[in-house]
Design goal:
Layout lengths: L2 H9 L17 H16 L3 H15 L14 H10 L1 H16 L25 H4 L4 H4 L11 H13 L3 H40 E4 L3 E4 L4 E5 L5 E6 L10 E2 L11 E5 L3 E11 L2 E10 L7 E5 L5 E7 L11 E5 L10 E11 L3 E5 L5 E6 L5 E6 L15 E8 L3 H10 L8 H12 L2 E3 L9 H13 L7 E5 L20 H11 L1 E7 L2 E3 L5 H6 L5 E2 L9 E4 L2 E6 L5 H18 L3 E4 L11 E2 L9 H10 L5 E4 L11 E3 L7 H5 L1 H10 L5 E2 L13 E3 L5 E3 L2 H11 L6 E2 L11 H30 L4 E2 L18 E3 L3 E4 L8 E6 L3 E4 L5 E3 L2 E7 L6 E6 L6
Parallel strand pairs: 17-18, 17-31, 18-19, 19-24, 24-26, 26-27, 27-28
Antiparallel strand pairs: 1-2, 2-3, 3-4, 4-9, 5-6, 6-7, 7-8, 8-16, 9-15, 10-12, 11-14, 12-13, 13-16, 14-15, 20-23, 21-25, 22-23, 29-30, 32-33, 33-34, 34-39, 35-38, 36-37, 36-39
Helix pairs in contact: 1-3, 11-20, 12-13, 19-20
């Protein structure tokens, strides 16, 4: 059958126009090739016009109206099912007619593969059929959907319609299967994570071993936890933070010690020794010693401060109480001035935390300390040599050596360790001298050389004697300007022509006289040439020992420093001091030693010093027992009693007033119980806070600040005056000073003497922080504006300008109000406690069975 007959057959088959058209089979690629070949042949034979006419007839005859020309439509399947049920017979009849017509001509092979509904021959298109043929048709087979003669957009439209018309039942069948697969994947992932985590934790547990009973060490991570007997961790630290090397080895047999120490080594970097000592009284100590195996490595250990409060060391530039409130990078642990340096004038290598752990660092360690906030709050110790503080190397490389002591109670631990720092051989007269210091005030003379004369001292002492503000005369403290030049160690006769008569007058009035001395020899002193010739001064490093190292101190623009490590220097100095005492009948000397930074930068003594601060220890020890000492202004070890330690100078301001309590509390727990605070009203003032009178002294402007300062000083071990109370005429300060002096004499001084005996016997401070009364009370650890005298009196002074109310915390117990006499229960806050300008809040401990 030729093409014309086939078209006529389709023309007279009556296909219902209402039936939506569905493509059941698409022509194969072979059929397309046959059609394309025949069309090309007709075109070549000049039959193109006839083909166009036939195509026009075909389109007008068999194409249903509104049918898509070159796409395949997909009706709604549900509607199609209803339609098929209604029109089944007509549909089958039409199909049979078409199939019968086609089957009558089997010799037409090019149409044998066409089945199903009759399909219109593709219309004439600009694109050749070969261009619509996918390149892979010959390989995929003739029934692939990709063989449809459609555009790419039509195929995409078909896929979208099929996906949108998927039966809901099919989706519901796949959903549980999808959820199951997801669940299985999540379960598998969880199991893998748990297995890896368990393995990691197991390895960490294997690496972390318990040593010495209560110390857990992880060698790989270099972390240590120390526990108390109740199983609570009291110290967490990270060892060797500067190692940058994790491969740890056991020490070689030649490096092991016979004392039971644990020895670990990081090859060519550092070696670690750890040991344990049971000191009794539930106190256990763990010694840690790092030996650097490389000059470039500075052994460093860091303690976690996040879960405890730390105290000790000394006064910091931030005046931090507790220590974690401050922050500074590594600084050498030597004395300095907090205005320009990190640490103050009194230090000790002792720190204690609120969980009952203390750190004691060996004196030979070239110690640097850091308190930092990031990445976490840490307190770090480092051993490091340098060119000033630790210039003398006693070992080839730096060594960090310290001990960690623990106990069940913070106060108990502090008491135990304090007892081991006491001086032996205390005499009864030493106790009497301490009582005298606690009873009577100290009067400072003018600090300017031109203002310090014999007549000025006579006038001031006369005012003190005639003043109604005091009950006792006390000590007259004369600064270093009793000499013409610093280092003369002879009285300036031009300003003190009849000093022996003045001394007799002062003695009759009840005063004791103290001279201030320094280890500095001014280059203008007549003694300078002598000490240089005898080589009694500290020499310049890297130069001839006959060349002295010079420095500056206070008013001195150029001065040498006595080499106290030289025995000849000690003999020379003692001879000078004893001559002064015998000639002028003074009572004692006050040592103004300066701080470490006052030493010449390139200092070199006859005997090498561990650090510049060791100088003041040697100086003080050589003078004690030879001449009476009133006190020292700088120390790293507690001087032998009855010598007192003087607090640093404070500015005349409210901020200076607030620095006193944390400083005196810190010095107390460091083992310095006998302290002399700064002068009432401050040791110095900026010019705008001063008023110049017609007399030789300056008067401070702020009377309220002076009153609050005087109230605080009345409860401290020693009251020190630089400005007389009767200097203020606009207010009744003299009357207030008299009332405070009376209260101190009747109520405070007996308590001070009582706890001074406790300090001599146990080493405990007289002025104590609240946590020493109840170390288990968290509120006591943060109290920075209160203190206790022993464990019997709580003092809460006003420290802010214009304040008439304040918050007060009382530790456990029953307390009697010192202002109104009422009884109050402890372990609680007193809010908005009223304190007038002429009062100071204090509370006396009562027996626990006291009834309200």
């Amino acid at each position: 059958m030729d093409r014309k007959k086939f078209r006529n057959a389709l023309k007279y088959n009556k296909v219902p126009q209402e039936i939506p058209k569905i493509v059941l089979d698409a022509p194969s690629s072979e059929n397309l090739n046959v059609i394309d070949s025949e069309m090309d042949s007709k075109s070549r034979n000049g039959n193109l016009d006839k083909e166009k006419t036939d195509d026009t007839i075909q389109r007008d005859t068999i194409r249903p109206p509104m049918r898509r020309k070159n796409s395949i439509s997909m009706p709604n399947l549900d509607d199609l099912k209803v339609f098929i049920d209604q029109e089944g017979e007509s549909y089958d009849t039409s199909a049979e007619k078409i199939n019968t017509t086609i089957q009558e001509e089997p010799e037409d092979a090019e149409f044998q593969n066409i089945s199903g509904y009759p399909r219109s021959v593709r219309r004439k298109s600009v694109l050749s059929p070969r261009m619509l043929k996918p390149p892979e048709d010959s390989e995929l087979g003739g029934n692939s959907p990709s063989n449809s003669i459609t555009s790419i957009n039509s195929i995409a439209s078909l896929l979208r319609e099929k996906i949108q018309n998927l039966p809901q039942t099919l989706r519901k069948k796949k959903s549980p299967e999808y959820k199951t697969k997801v669940f299985v994947c999540l379960l598998f992932t969880t199991i893998i994570v748990l297995i890896v985590t368990a393995y990691f934790l197991y390895q960490q547990k294997v690496l972390a071993k318990v040593y010495f009973g209560n110390m857990k060490l992880n060698k790989a991570k270099r972390t240590v936890k120390i526990f108390n007997d109740e199983g609570e961790d009291v110290v967490k630290l990270h060892l060797g933070t500067t190692l940058n090397y994790d491969n740890v080895l056991n020490c070689l047999p030649a490096d092991n010690r016979d004392d039971g120490s644990l020895c670990l080594e990081w090859m060519h970097r550092a070696r670690l020794y750890m040991n344990f000592f049971d000191l009794g009284s539930d106190v256990k100590c763990y010694n840690v010693q790092w030996i650097s195996l490389s000059e470039s490595l500075a052994p460093t250990d860091c303690f976690d401060m996040s879960n405890s409060h730390w105290y000790g060391g000394g006064q910091t530039a931030e005046n931090a109480w507790p220590l974690e409130k401050g922050s500074h990078f590594y600084q050498p642990f030597i004395t300095g001035n907090i205005e320009t340096h990190e640490w103050g004038n009194v230090l000790k290598r002792y720190f204690i935390n609120s969980k009952g752990a203390a750190i004691v660092i060996d004196n030979e360690t070239p110690l640097y300390i850091s308190i930092r906030d990031s990445p976490k709050k840490e307190f770090c110790l480092r051993a490091q040599y340098d060119h000033f503080a630790y210039v003398n190397k006693f070992t080839s490389t730096a060594q960090l050596n310290y001990s960690i002591c623990t106990s069940a109670n913070m106060s108990q631990l502090h008491v135990f360790l304090s007892e081991h720092t006491l001086w032996d051989g205390l005499k009864k007269e030493d106790s009497n001298i301490i009582d005298y210091f606690l009873t009577e005030p100290v009067w400072e003379m003018p600090d300017m050389k031109e203002a310090l004369t014999q007549d000025v001292i006579d006038n001031i002492t006369t005012k003190i004697t005639n003043s109604v503000a005091v009950l006792k005369q006390g000590h007259i403290l004369i600064n270093e300007f009793w000499q013409e030049q610093i280092g003369d160690f002879e009285l300036d006769q031009s300003r003190f022509p009849d000093f022996d008569k003045l001394i007799e007058k002062l003695k009759r009035r009840g005063f004791r006289v103290v001279f201030t001395i320094q280890p500095f020899i001014s280059t203008e002193s007549f003694n300078f040439a002598e000490v240089v010739r005898k080589k009694l001064l500290v020499s310049e490093r890297f130069s001839d020992k006959r060349i002295p190292a010079l420095t500056r101190y206070k008013s001195l623009q150029s001065a040498g420093v006595l080499d106290i490590t030289n025995d000849q220097t000690i003999s020379w100095l003692l001879h000078k001091l004893k001559k002064v005492m015998n000639t002028y009948k003074i009572d004692s000397f006050y040592l103004d030693l300066g701080v470490a930074y006052n030493m010449p930068h390139y200092y070199q003594c006859e005997k090498a010093l561990l650090n510049p601060d060791e100088y003041k220890t040697i100086f003080t020890n050589n003078l004690q027992g030879e001449v009476p000492l009133f006190g020292v202004n700088s120390a790293i070890e507690r001087p032998r009693s009855p010598s007192f330690v003087v607090l640093p100078e404070f500015e005349f301001s409210w901020d200076g007033l607030r620095k006193i309590i944390p400083t005196i509390l810190t010095y107390g727990i460091l083992g310095y119980p006998f302290l002399i605070p700064g002068a009432v009203g401050g040791d110095y003032a900026v010019p705008e806070t001063m008023l110049v009178t017609n007399e030789t002294e300056n008067v401070l402007e702020d009377p309220e600040l002076y009153i609050r300062w005087l109230q605080l000083a009345s409860f401290l071990p020693v009251v020190r005056y630089h400005h007389l109370p009767n200097s203020y005429s606009q207010k009744n300060i003299s009357g207030l000073a008299k009332e405070l002096a009376k209260k101190r004499h009747e109520s405070i001084t007996p308590k001070l003497k009582k706890f001074a005996r406790v300090s001599l016997n146990l080493g405990l401070p007289i002025i104590r922080p609240l946590w020493m009364l109840d170390s288990d009370d968290p509120a006591c650890h943060l109290a920075v504006d209160e203190f206790s005298i022993g464990d019997e009196i709580i003092v809460a002074p006003v420290l802010h300008s214009g304040a008439r109310e304040r918050e007060i915390y009382l530790p456990a117990g029953v307390w009697k109000d010192g202002i109104d006499g009422s009884l109050r229960k402890g372990s609680r806050w007193i809010h908005d406690y009223r304190v007038e300008e002429d009062n100071v809040a204090f509370f006396e401990r009562m027996p626990d069975d006291t009834r309200f």
